[in-house]
Amino acid sequence: MENYEDLLAAVVAPEGGRPVTDPATGEEIGRAPEHGTDDLERAVAAARKAQPAWEALGHTERSRLLNAAADAVDRSAEALARLISREQGKPLNGPGSRFEAGGVSAWLRAAAATPLEPERVLDDESGQATLRYRAVGLVGAIGPWNWPALIASWQFGPALRMGNTVVMKPSEDTPLSVLALAAIVNRVLPEGVLTVLSGDGGLGAALATHPAFDKIMFTGSTRTGKAIAAASADNLPRLTLELGGNDPGIVLPGADPAAIAEDLFWGAFINTGQTCAALKRLYVHHTLHDDVVDALAEVAARMPMGPGVKEESMLGPLTTAAQFRIVDGLVEQARAAGGRVVTGGGPDRGAPGHFYPATLVTGLPADAPLVVEEQFGPALPILAYTDLDAVVDQANALDVGLGASVWSSDAEWAKQVAARIEAGTVWINKHGTLHPMVPFGGVKGSGYGLEFGVEGLKAVGVPQVIAA
Length: 468
Description:
By secondary structure, the chain is of the alpha/beta class. The protein has helices spanning 4-11, 37-56, 58-75, 77-88, 97-113, 148-161, 175-185, 201-209, 222-231, 257-269, 289-301, 321-336, 369-372, 388-395, 411-418, 453-459, and strands spanning 18-21, 28-32, 119-124, 127-135, 138-142, 165-169, 194-196, 215-219, 238-242, 247-251, 279-285, 340-343, 359-362, 379-385, 400-401, 403-407, 425-428, 443-444, 447-448, 461-467. The chain contains 16 helices and 20 strands. A seven-stranded mixed beta sheet has the order 12-13-14-11-10-16-17, sandwiched between helices. A six-stranded mixed beta sheet has the order 7-6-5-8-9-19, sandwiched between helices. The longest helix is centred in the N-terminal third of the chain and has 20 residues, at 37-56. The N and C termini lie far apart (53 Å).
């Protein structure tokens, strides 16, 4: 499956199924299987049967197989990247689908290599106690449409490393990429260890409420995350919920607009803004506001937008028509309320594809919908401020806290401000950059639980203390 045609043929439904279209053209790519509750029961039974032997292999052998799976991803990386571009829309280049396919491999290798040693928590005259982590058992994972393959690997990689088996449901908007990833890695993994089922929200609800799952992992909207937490309560599975965000960025006085402009741009517009931890509202000190706006507009002007499979594209379409309407509506609402659209806005609504240009909007009040609602698309509100304490309060005012950033030529001052922001991660002079060894998760309405690194492994394990 090292070429696109073979990879696609391996995952499309032989007949029937749900049509999946290219968001750049509206063309049908193929049809995804529509799995139901009977398929879920079979997957659960197979995973339960496979789990004891998988756990018994031990960390060393499971890590070896995860590295072999990463090798398989590397061999099929170009085909997988092309499928992601056609299904989800992100460009092949820049921080796009080749970046995503490479990230899958990197995160699988990190999960395999991360040590998780037993910890001696007591050793004195009163006795000894050791804390260790063992497999949870069966993990159910529900993924989003914005980084379908990468986030799938964030879920199943650590879970498999810890000795769990996994049943996964991708978004109904981007099922083929995750089915393809499973087909690639399952050439290496034992039968029943990882199963991907594609279907609608009803299948996701059935997974979230199924009593066989010992752990549920979900990445998506806060509203759906709350529903999963409520629906799963009777079964008491452990939960990792990585939910929506409305990440603020604060540019402090004395920052260099030209030096930070490109990093600001990609912090906001990576994946055409369709990233939970993207920069979604930017507060700039009034002495720098105009210069930052001009520098961002200059960067936006040289970033070509087009179909993901075109090598020259740096920005792609929005993945769904619904998301296009949300972004379009928020920008038009901002314009009608007196906001100034510096660049972008005004998409060709009659053209094929869900293309919305990179858009910068200034002159909005702090409570404008484009500021307080997560746009999840290529429209960035930029607000001038004068009082730092007040703007920190504005950054913290919303009931989300996934990420944030502070931009300054004075790193120590930036860290002091960062410590006052209510977010799971606060970046300094960058935004949204993730590393497989650095824990990641949100606070408030952005969910709970950590992914990546040692803490990510612990999150898909069960702690056990042995005391003597």
